[in-house]
Amino acid sequence: MSIPVLSQRRRMKTPSARSATALLALVGALLGCGNGDRASSTQAGVDRVLATEWAGYAGTRPDWKGGVAVYVITPRGAYFVSANLGGDVGDDIHFRGASTTKLFTASAIMLLHQQGKLDIDDVVTASIPGASEPYLPDTSDYAIPYKDQITIRALLQHRAGVFDVANDPVPATAPFPYAGEKYPLWVKDRDDAHTFTIDELVGVAAVNQLSYFSPGTSYHYSDTGYSLLGKIVERVSGRRYDQFVQENLLAPVGLGDTTFPHLGDDRALPPPSAAAYSYFRGVSYDVTDDQNLNNMSSLVANGNILTTPFDLATWLRALFAGEVGLSDATLRMMTDVVPTGEGLEYGLGMLFTPGLGFGHTGGRDGYASFVSHDPERDVTIALSARIQNADDVPGYYQFLVDTCRRDSSDQRADAYYRTASAAIASAFN
């Protein structure tokens, strides 16, 4: 039996009312802790909450494996809890953070904007400030529809209409052997160590003249749109995407356990780590060492991050504290969210979750993640699960955040989650 490969686009979710309620319950417990015995008691309490929630979910599904880890930073301290991952697991356990990568790509673009090295309201055919070259190459690989109308801001907001080569199949009428297939999967089925390039991926949309709509007229989540942003980072900075992020976004806060693999044969998960599973038709499949799935080179700048709960939460918290280099004015631009029409509120690479703040979701085969920072309460949370439920993706994401927020009187949040949950569920029918 083949295991379905889940699309990145479908992983762009917001927690449901029930799930976000559980997250806030856990955060509230942590906020109330103090020192000494009280802190120990709180730690033990949240351990029990997470274990109970996980066991309850697993108990209704045969052959359910994997586990979940949550790292929370509050003004009173930082706390790590996990369930079903083994007793020696800590906040340095590595996982594939998938679309949480977009937080870093957006921050890289906004840092360059802040430095005057690009303007997010420029179209991508405009010249880079101080240079004669355009933001995107003037070549056939980048001759995508509406190119002269696409702004960098629209790419950040998923409002550019760029066809998502990573997640949507090329039309069956295309005159190429990959017609009717998702291009990256078609290639990896033939060479699982193939190193994809952004030129190659965008070229598929260009040669087939694929797009969703004219820029600025609608919303459509697009990994390929963020691939274009990665290319812009490289052309403006003169550095490879992963090098720029490491040097300018991670090094300033001293984080060394986060990487962005870009080669097809760079597929190993560094220790410490844990087994990852895809759950399909009631069976858990170990995908930890699946060499096809672990080729991240097609996801550069949109989903190739390897990180830990500590690094991810610490970095997002530092971003909002001004320690990464982005100013308050720049952060206000990033967090100026607008409704997507799909029950979500999205800014410049930032998803807003009522009651939990700003961040992003992420998921790929074997992994599901969520990170957020609430500026009002100064609380940051990073959640990572080592199993992806292919049988019920929207319900599973509801559960993941349900492990931590179980009660809330925030009627606005409840209404928001009901709307978002309905929109997400409809996308899978």
Written description of the protein model:
With 429 residues, the chain is α+β, with helices and mostly antiparallel strands. It has one domain: Beta-lactamase (3-Layer(aba) Sandwich), CATH 3.40.710. Helices cover 34% and strands 14% of the residues. It contains 12 helices and 13 strands. The protein has helices spanning 17-31, 36-58, 101-114, 152-156, 183-188, 198-207, 223-237, 241-250, 309-320, 328-334, 393-402, 411-427, and strands at 68-74, 77-83, 95-98, 277-280, 283-286, 305-307, 338-339, 345-346, 351-353, 357-364, 367-374, 379-385, 387-389. The strands form 4 sheets. Strands 2-1-12-11-10-9 form a 6-stranded antiparallel beta sheet, sandwiched between helices. Helix 1 packs parallel to helix 11 (393-402). The longest helix is centred in the first third of the chain and has 23 residues, at 36-58. The radius of gyration is 21 Å and the shape is globular. The protein starts with 16 loop residues before the first helix and ends with a helix. The relative contact order is 0.22.
